[in-house]
Design goal:
181 residues, mainly alpha
Amino acid sequence: MRADAARNLAVVLRTGARLLAEDPGTSMSAIASAAGVDRTTVHRRFATREALLSAVFHAKLDSAERVLDEARLMEAPVPVALHRYVEGIVPVSREWPVDTRRMMRQDPDADRRRAVQSARLDAFLRRAADEGYLRPDASPEWVRAVLDQLVDTVAHRFPDVEPPRAADLVVDTFLNGFGRS
């Protein structure tokens, strides 16, 4: 792919992610216009809106997969792995704000990839519980929901907080909470 075509594709995907996060019904023409490219450029690359949506999902999943790999969730000490994960996933969440859990059910491959990534994070949280970093009476669903919400909150409600600081805040809140021991 030529450099300008690759650049246009990246802009279209990021713009699509942002606009689709705001309004899942956003048209391809609106995405093209906001991306600063001709709509025929978008239509030539993506035959349908669903194809564009699928490409956005896969771009987000590719980024999330790199974060999971680099965090070394099953090898690094739990606090270190958690910090690496949060520090990496916050920028991914900001760059690709579209909520893949809700919208990708029409893309079985993307949905399968999301489920595999989710299972990797769940396995890490089981490891954290087994090693005593989490309360033994906390349900895995609750633990995961809290972590996801903390990441989402710092990524989107506090966009000026840099990823290393965001990770510090999330890890401390997640592992230590606000109460006194």
